[in-house]
């Protein structure tokens, strides 16, 4: 759980702080008619640095597991304006010409640095590539392919599960190259301003790093000469999911196209919540998980269903005005914590 600080607007308005970290992964919500304590793997309060969130959330271990061939996912969830994009990427104003201060960089850039350091120290032959897409109004769009974003078909196969057809994957070898791809894709992502957030993400974004390693063996297999014989290759993925914020249209003052976008966002988050609720219950063999209810749940099926390792960062506001959304996020995260996977 990450609790953002009260904003200047909230302080001026006289909003009360209703969320408090109790230490040891406990967070307490105290307001009129509401008094509840929740327990999580870790809680980061308003004073926590980006570095503390990276180290304390287990993100470094997730990078190492992805290099070892596991399918790893981190997703940020929460109300609009709760700090999801900041947690994952850092300040919104950064660009190639105006990079963010190193202390403010988010989980993504820190993970890229860690991944490249690990790949150099392990000495294995790693091939790294990235793909970046958004789900906007239930359409999947590539954020890296040149030209205006066009809708791509979502397919299913027995070997790959759900996948996006004709998605561009770009190889990279340096930190500058992958950060450039991240910023390039983020600038093409749909955002709008409304009453709760000046830079509200109107789409869910998924950046996936594909890691293919071919370790070279020093000893040849029987019958082979003394050439470099390759061990079986391992293919891991590290997927960063920046979910669009849940929002009440009445609170944001959205109308017209913004209202249509909000309804689409809320429908897909509801489908995700439904899948998480079913996964958190003890399951018999016949339990059906409705991944096909939205494009988002189809693309996250592998992350949620148990063949991968998933970190969920739930971002919340401490403001009394956001109380109902904060409680909703905490209940959602409590259910997600009960999901067990067998990677």
| Residue runs with pLDDT of under 50 for 5 or more positions | 192-197, 225-229
| Beta fraction | 25-35%
Count of DSSP E strands?
18
Number of helices: 11
Radius of gyration: 21 Å
The portion of residues assigned to helices is: 25-40%
* Overall body shape: globular
Distance between the termini: 23 Å
SSE pattern: EHEEEHHEHHEEEEEEHEEEEEEHHHHEH
What is the fold-level CATH name, i.e. the topology? Kinesin
* Top-tier CATH class: Alpha Beta
Largest sheet: 9 strands, mixed
What CATH architecture label applies? 3-Layer(aba) Sandwich
Query: Roughly what is the average pLDDT, rounded to an integer?
Result: 86
Structural class: alpha+beta
Give the full name of the CATH homologous superfamily: Kinesin motor domain
Domain count: the total is: 1
SSE arrangement:
Elements: E1 2-3, H1 8-13, E2 19-23, E3 26-31, E4 34-39, H2 50-56, H3 59-67, E5 71-78, H4 84-89, H5 107-122, E6 125-136, E7 139-142, E8 151-152, E9 154-157, E10 161-164, E11 170-171, H6 175-187, E12 191-194, E13 197-201, E14 204-214, E15 216-217, E16 229-230, E17 234-242, H7 249-252, H8 257-280, H9 295-299, H10 301-305, E18 308-316, H11 323-337
Parallel strand pairs: 1-18, 5-17, 5-18
Antiparallel strand pairs: 2-3, 3-4, 6-7, 6-11, 6-14, 7-8, 9-10, 12-13, 14-17, 15-16
Helix pairs in contact: 3-5, 8-11
Please tag this protein with its features.
3-stranded antiparallel β-sheet, 11 helices, alpha+beta, microtubule binding, 28% strand, Kinesin
Q: Can you describe this structure?
A:
The protein is of the alpha+beta class and 343 residues long. It has a single domain (2-94, 103-193, 200-214, 233-250, 257-280, 290-337), classed as 3-Layer(aba) Sandwich (Kinesin), CATH 3.40.850.10. It has helices at residues 8-13, 50-56, 59-67, 84-89, 107-122, 175-187, 249-252, 257-280, 295-299, 301-305, 323-337; strands spanning 2-3, 19-23, 26-31, 34-39, 71-78, 125-136, 139-142, 151-152, 154-157, 161-164, 170-171, 191-194, 197-201, 204-214, 216-217, 229-230, 234-242, 308-316. Strands 1, 5, 6, 7, 8, 11, 14, 17 and 18 form a nine-stranded mixed β-sheet that branches. A three-stranded antiparallel β-sheet has the order 2-3-4, covered by helices on one side. It has a two-stranded antiparallel sheet with strand order 9-10. A hairpin with a 3-residue loop joins strand 9 (154-157) and strand 10. Helix 3 crosses helix 5 (107-122) and helix 8 runs parallel beside helix 11 (323-337). It starts with a strand and ends in a 6-residue tail after the last helix.
């Amino acid at each position: 759980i990450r609790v953002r600080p009260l904003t200047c607007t909230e302080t001026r308005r006289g909003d009360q702080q209703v969320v408090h970290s109790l230490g040891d992964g406990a967070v307490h919500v105290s307001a009129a008619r509401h008094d509840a304590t929740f327990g999580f793997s870790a809680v980061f309060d308003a004073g926590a640095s980006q570095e503390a969130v990276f180290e304390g959330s287990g993100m470094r271990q997730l990078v190492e597991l992805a290099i070892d061939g596991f399918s790893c996912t981190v997703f940020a969830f929460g109300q609009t304006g709760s700090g999801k994009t900041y947690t994952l990427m850092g300040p919104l104003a950064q660009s190639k010409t105006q990079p963010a201060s190193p202390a403010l960089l988010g989980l993504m850039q820190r993970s890229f640095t860690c991944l490249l350091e690990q790949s150099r120290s392990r000495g294995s032959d790693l091939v790294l590539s990235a793909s970046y897409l958004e789900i906007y109004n239930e359409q999947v769009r590539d954020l890296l392919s040149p030209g205006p974003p066009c809708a791509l078909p979502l397919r299913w196969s027995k070997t790959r599960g759900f996948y996006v057809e004709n998605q561009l994957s770009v190889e990279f070898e340096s930190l500058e190259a992958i950060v450039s791809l991240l910023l390039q894709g983020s600038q093409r992502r749909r955002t709008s301003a409304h009453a709760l957030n000046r830079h509200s993400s109107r789409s869910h974004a998924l950046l996936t790093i594909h890691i293919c390693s071919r370790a070279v063996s020093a000893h040849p297999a029987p019958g082979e000469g003394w050439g470099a014989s390759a061990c079986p290759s391992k293919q891991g993925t590290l997927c960063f999911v920046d979910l669009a914020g849940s929002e009440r249209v009445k609170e944001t003052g959205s109308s017209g196209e913004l209202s249509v976008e909000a309804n689409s966002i809320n429908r897909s988050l509801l489908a995700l919540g439904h899948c998480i609720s079913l996964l958190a219950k003890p399951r018999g063999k016949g339990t059906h998980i409705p991944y096909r209810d939205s494009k988002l749940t189809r693309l996250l099926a592998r992350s949620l269903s148990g063949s991968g390792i998933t970190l969920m960062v739930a971002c919340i506001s401490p403001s009394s005005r956001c109380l109902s959304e904060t409680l909703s996020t905490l209940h959602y995260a409590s259910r997600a914590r009960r999901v067990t996977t067998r990677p």
